[in-house]
Amino acid sequence: MSRLFSAYVIVDWSAAAKPTTGADSVWIGVLKRDVRFRLTFEAHNPATRQEAEAKLATILDDLKKRGERALVGFDFPLGFPRGFSAALALKGEHPWRAVWDQLAKMVKDKADNTNNRFGAAAEINRRLTGGPFPFWGCPPRDTLTTLQPKRARDHGAEDLPEFRHTDLAAKGAASIWKLYYNGSVGGQALVGIPAVRRLKLARGEAVKVWPFETGFKVLTEDDLAGVEAVIAEVYPSLVKTTPLAGEVKDAAQVRGLAEHFAKLDETGKLAALFGPSKTAPADLVVDAETEEGWILGAVI
Description:
With 300 residues, this protein is an alpha/beta fold. The chain has one domain. The chain contains eight helices and six strands. The protein has helices at 49-65, 84-87, 95-106, 117-128, 165-170, 186-203, 249-266, 282-292; strands at residues 7-12, 27-33, 39-44, 70-74, 207-209, 229-233. The protein has a six-stranded mixed beta sheet with strand order 3-2-1-4-6-5, with helices on both faces.
């Protein structure tokens, strides 16, 4: 039984506004084979997102030279709830790509980690509703007319959904509209999606973003012919990992996820996770493939 991947790279992203290491910063976990073909793990903790991008590029270049295909998992949403692209009147036949392109234009992320994620969210709120909705959550100093520290109101029937299909399937995943405070993923998504976009653009068709470019389906070796890396959204809480002595929680989580996916791949069970369950409604599959994305391992 052949494996789909020979290396597993898991990235715990951060929306920190200054250089930082240790807990609540960027962690990159790499599980790859040594000269004796044994899986070995290494962790990297770059102080800034710019350093993290450079490190990821180096890691992928190295794996390419070794002829190893990598699964690259990022721990933030790669897509927004269904209808987001249309609500912003973005052009393009692929809603997810139109959103990625729009965020790349709006989000400014400097070398020292200072960024305008709150300003970008406030501008999107202005375009969507003219008020502080649906994005919410920010430090008091970043409060604007169209972005408030607390949630303005609940989502109604006429609003964009609060959660994607996969957030509900993952049970406990936070809404992308929450930008700040514990458990938030919105800030990471705003600064992270443009970084993933740059990674993808630099490598073209050799890197595929799942499920947008691969389809939401069980993947085969034929599907990945010529592919050097598959980018996927991951959710650390899906796997319980106990930190080793002296290991911070974030480092343990990227290690645990890498080991989890490697074990599934070794036993031929990973390929199925790239497809929906047999009971998944057709409209859910379409939403996942075209704009929302999916968390690898989340099951309806």
